[in-house]
Amino acid sequence: MSGSKPDILWSPHHADRYVICDSELGLYRIGPVGCSETKAGALPLSVETAATLLAINSDTPYMKCVAWYPKHEPECLLAVGQANGRVVLTSLGQSHNSKCKELMGKEFVPKHARQCNTLAWNPVDSNWLAAGLDKHRADFSVLIWDISSKFSPEASVAAEKIRLSSGDTDSGLVVTKPLYELGQNDACLSLCWLPRDQKLLLAGMHRNLAIFDLRNTSQKTFVNTKAIQGVTVDPHFPDRVASFFEGQVAIWDLRKFEKPVLTLTEQPKPLTKVAWCPTRMGLLATLTRDSNIIRLYDMQHTPTPIGDETEPTIIERSVQPSNSLIGSFAWHPTSQNRMVVVSAANRVMTDFTVFERISLAWSSTTSLMWACGRHLYECAEGVGGEGTVEKDIATKMRQRAQSRYGHDTVQVWKNHLLAGGDDPQLKSLWYTLFFMKQYTEDVEQKQQGSKQALVYSGIKNIVKSSSGTTENRRCWSGSDRQTDVPRFHSEERSLALRLCGWINRGPDINVEPFLRSLEGEGEWERAAAVALFNLDIRRAIQILNKGASAERGDLNLNVVAMALSGYTDEKSSLWREMCSSLRLQLKNPYLCVMFAFLTSEPGTYDGVLYESSVAVTDRVAFACMFLNDSQLPRYMEKLTSEMKEVGNLEGILLTGLTKDGVDLMESYVDRTGDVQTASFCMLKGSPGEVVKDPRVQCWIENYRNLLDAWRFWHKRAEFDIHRSKLDPSSKPLAQVFVSCNFCGKSISYSCSAMPHQGRGFSQYGVSGSPTKSKVTSCPGCRKPLPRCALCLMNMGTPVSNCPGTGHGTGKSDEKVDLTRENKLAQFNNWFTWCHNCRHGGHAGHILSWFRDHTECPVSACTCKCMQLDTTGNLVPSDSH
Amino acid sequence: MFVARSIAADHKDLIHDVSYDFHGRRMATCSSDQSVKVWDKSESGEWHCTASWKTHSGSVWRVTWAHPEFGQVLASCSFDRTAAVWEEIVGESNDKQRGQSHWIKRTTLVDSRTSVTDVKFAPKHMGLMLTTCSADGVVRVYEAPDVMNLSQWSLQHEISCKLNCSCISWNPSSSRAHPPMIAVGSDDSNVMYGGKVQIYEYNENTRSTLMTVTDAVHDIAFSPNLGRSFHVLAIATKDVRIFKLVPLRKESSSTGPTKFEVQIVAQFDNHNSQVWRVSWNITSTLLASSGDDGCVRLWKANYMDNWKCTGILKGDGSPVNGSSGQPGAMNTMVGSTAAPSAGWPDADPPSLVYIQYYTHPSTVHQHSVYIQYYTI
């Protein structure tokens, strides 16, 4: 094409070849990156593909347009339209067969020289080549050449001119007599053959679109329009044609050619190319000048032949194959939605695929479904295998719900094991709640109600209320040396230590059981630190030695023990100096704080208190022992706000289940979304205030909603039972009332005014006292209850298990069951009915009926009772 | 392995939307073939199409489920300028035995004069309400006053957004502390028209505009709130953006619209092109996005609220070759704009502070095995 502006043509037969034409013709082959054929000198087109230059042809100057011979043989035969109106046949690559040789270099010369605008091979009669030319007075502008026609003598007149245009052209190959001459006194800007008939040619003329019929050249159909450039037929819809003018694309239906069926939204710059996608129905790509985007119009529906008003849906989108301005593009003939794009300058090529737009959705159980094109894909979160990567909280909560997390109300601490046992924050939380509960129970036994509320208000509030603090200076145990470390005692501080888990119930401060449990868990450093804080250096050293000699123990612990044994309270000793500088290099935080403690001045323990890798419980316990009454609340306040800020569950120890605790939990939920832990935690406190906090109610509602969405209905019901213990207001009311047909009173025994019978509906079949009315009758009026539709007995009659289930246990077993107080009668005896047709009977009978039938057992009732409710057919996913 | 399993969808044209029901056991798809299909999951995990019917006389853009407490109810919207409500009818025929269910049209909402581009049910606690938005920029809120009668819907509100609307999302939070909110996105590509995301507080009927998003918005999604104190909004525009809306605590005495501090918590241009859809998982800890690069990407935040890409899949379920999966530098800005109250001028631009930080590519690489897919 004209100098700078390149164009691309895909080979009609080789899916991996294309030609780029700018000032010369270049044939490229496209292949995967790294393939041996494409390795040398390959130009990368995309991440996966590269192009190799196969041949260059610069024989034909002044190229205006190019068209590729549509038939298989000879391959790589190209027609080039030149600025002087000549059409030259040329080829690329090494096609040596005779037929091609014969055609090569053949020229077709119009009578008057003017620019050749367009070329089109007839797709069926492939000898025919149509050329569209500019206007020259009254001359014809559409010439159809037969490439097989022989040299015509008349052309010798122009032989002189021919030699000028291309020196090596054999004059014997010049053709001057076209097969057809059309479009007199007009210009032709674009051409295409219509697939409807091989003899129909659509031409964009100067001011109209014209259809020439070669069977009768005097006849043409035409419509006046400005949109005459780039006429092109939809390969999937032979009557649909696109053409353009400036920024406007017109879509025509050849069956009603009077006006365009639609025009696409005008683009701000003039269009340069419009092309239908050969692999996809109704997809049109357009390119404007000086642009780096290709605009796509997806015409979803062919206009219906019955001329109703529905206009086709058009989905517009733009794609940006690369950052540079686009010179031209060409759809790949067979690969789905694929095109090669060439830049306006420097011939940079890009292999580009237009992807379908993907819509997607997550299911409640974290599997992802997406739709791409006409296909659906689903993938679920992987199970096993990866291990190292943390699971999403949705998956965690589901697993925890299944392991009954939160439901251990006796050994409360065990809940952290149910949660997987790998989360230190959850561990701390559940231990704290366990200690709180334990203390409450102790207090209850001693009948001291006053402290009970306090324990749930957290250590921060407990130490605030502290009074009567005593101070003492103890000896280092095992030596008579007096320490200058003051230690503080009070009832509240002891309680705090208990909540931290350092000491057990009882008046003495005895950390030995705690140390032993830490040893048992292999937490040697922590045990040693706790021993040291209790001023027992010997025990600390002993623990460290034990740790060093334990299986897979760290021998360095012995070295630490050695360093510890050299402790001196001499202010200026070398030991002190070395310890305070070297302790920072210790990796284990507990070893670090041990030396921090030993080397710090009394009352200033920042090295211990603000070591954030030490568990909050230990820091709090430490503070309760060594900070005085003015320091302690300040430290607690500071630590609490820090915990609240980050939503660290260890902070529940400080805040308790108070409003502060809810604040802390709020930031935990904000951070993690773990409403499960939040709900269970807040339900563990003393009955009362926090549960009424709207935030807590919100977490509970959200958690219940999650369980419902996962169809963990049993878990949800269990949760509701658990919840109602603490929050009686959450109990739902009775859902169903059944009234007697005769007296209109409720037949429920518990609701009736009669004495004795507060035991509920389920007690049928128990032969009770004579004063009790028959269970088959209404407790109000003693009229019989309705009959079961199947056994025709009055309801309330105990029935044996339904036939055919194989679970029949006989009457005696049933009796044994039923005589147990609070035990429900077997479900088979329940009164059930269809809420639609209102026929019913014993649940067991009805169930067994519907195992084989779809319609109601009552004669002439066609109700499909069992299919009425879709949700009812869903199975809970947590039933076992 | 990064292989997703494919399901034979059997739609005759592009599928535009896929939607799960509340329990994740049913799914609906809609397509340019003018039909909606309903799929049920068997106990073995296979999907079976149990209903397929022509719903509209144009491409069906979106389909969505009502909460099951209102029955088995679907809403669809189409290029044919209508939205429709469908209900499954059981027991009327023998379809169930053949594994087919029967859906009937309960109502057609014909108020729009242009293509209806999105349809969404309001959260359950608001009753049975339906919102549509259309290409001419009108958001309509319908309500079925009697939840047992799905054929009567009254048009409650008609809000003009002035820009062609492409997507809507309700804030799913059921907390009484949070007012009901609707976010509306516009895919108008003219950046001069200002903010393309508008947020309406339903009761107050006031709006705020996210001025920071001026490019065409293709999809918008409020995250499931799950008892959090703030709201999160994901936006599919020329990149994936995640905004946080933190309600400013107001004095109990003051009434009027809630003010929000709007923070942008993440912005990813890894799709290298227009982002088409975004979707949150049930705990709003995972975000999935799809883009014109033909890929599905998964995003997850760590405990520091830093969002990272944790998985990439091609649209056809095949794995993506390593290199393109590396997220490069990303911009995160922390800004604050208040949701303007009625008196605030909409055009008031927020002041923004830009903080740039980089994600370490190696961490992403490690995380890219996070999701494992079943191979069939």
From TrEMBL, chain A:
Keywords: Lysosome, Membrane, Metal-binding, Repeat, WD repeat, Zinc, Zinc-finger. SUPFAM superfamilies: WD40 repeat-like (SSF50978). Residues 397-626 form the MIOS-like alpha-solenoid domain. InterPro entries: MIOS/Sea4, MIOS_a-sol, WD40/YVTN_repeat-like_dom_sf, WD40_repeat_dom_sf, WD40_rpt, Zn_ribbon_mio. It comes from the Eukaryota. GO terms for molecular function: zinc ion binding. The keyword Membrane applies. GO terms for biological process: cellular response to amino acid starvation; positive regulation of TORC1 signaling. Residues 740-866 form the GATOR2 complex protein MIO zinc-ribbon like domain. Its main location: membrane. One of its GO terms (cellular component) is lysosomal membrane. It is found in: Lysosome membrane. Belongs to the WD repeat mio family. This is WD repeat protein mio zinc-ribbon like domain-containing protein. The gene is MIOS.
Automatic annotation (TrEMBL), chain B:
Keywords: Cell cycle, Cell division, Centromere, Chromosome partition, Kinetochore, Lysosome, Mitosis, mRNA transport, Nuclear pore complex, Nucleus, Protein transport, Repeat, Translocation, Transport, WD repeat. SMART domains: WD40 (SM00320). One of its GO terms (biological process) is chromosome segregation. The keyword GTP-binding does not apply. WD repeats lie at residues 8-40, 268-300. One of its GO terms (cellular component) is Seh1-associated complex. GO terms for molecular function: structural molecule activity. InterPro entries: Sec13/Seh1_fam, WD40/YVTN_repeat-like_dom_sf, WD40_PAC1, WD40_repeat_dom_sf, WD40_rpt. It is found in: Chromosome, Centromere, Kinetochore; Lysosome membrane; Nucleus, Nuclear pore complex. Component of the Nup107-160 subcomplex of the nuclear pore complex (NPC). The Nup107-160 subcomplex is required for the assembly of a functional NPC. The Nup107-160 subcomplex is also required for normal kinetochore microtubule attachment, mitotic progression and chromosome segregation. This subunit plays a role in recruitment of the Nup107-160 subcomplex to the kinetochore. Belongs to the WD repeat SEC13 family. This is Nucleoporin SEH1. It comes from Oncorhynchus tshawytscha (Chinook salmon).
